[in-house]
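Checklist before submission:
- one chain only
- standard amino acids only
- sequence pasted in full

Submission:
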Amino acid sequence: MPHVYMLKCADGSYYTGSTNDLERRLWEHKTGFIKGYTSERLPVELVWSADFPNEHEAFLFERQIKGWSRAKKQALIRGDWNGVHQVVKQERMNREKSKRPPSTPLRSAQDAKAK
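Returned file contents:
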């Protein structure tokens, strides 16, 4: 059965992956068997995993998580789906704020009459 998993690395970063054999893949990460991101940040610890009905869905969710912010990943690790949604709302508000032009101060009625 396909799995998506998240590891916490020694430097505090998160690594997300997917596999059909979670036990084997964890061994590979923990021993540095496969050189790459986690082998340079040992030790690693499994902090979250989920089963998926097929490889395609696991791959899609893995890709989705890799694009998430740290706060969103931490909410997922806690199993806090409400927290995930709150992070999404906050990120959306922040994006909208950054798109708005800076506000200009309102003129007083006297300033408007003077012009």
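Reviewer check: The mean pLDDT is 91.
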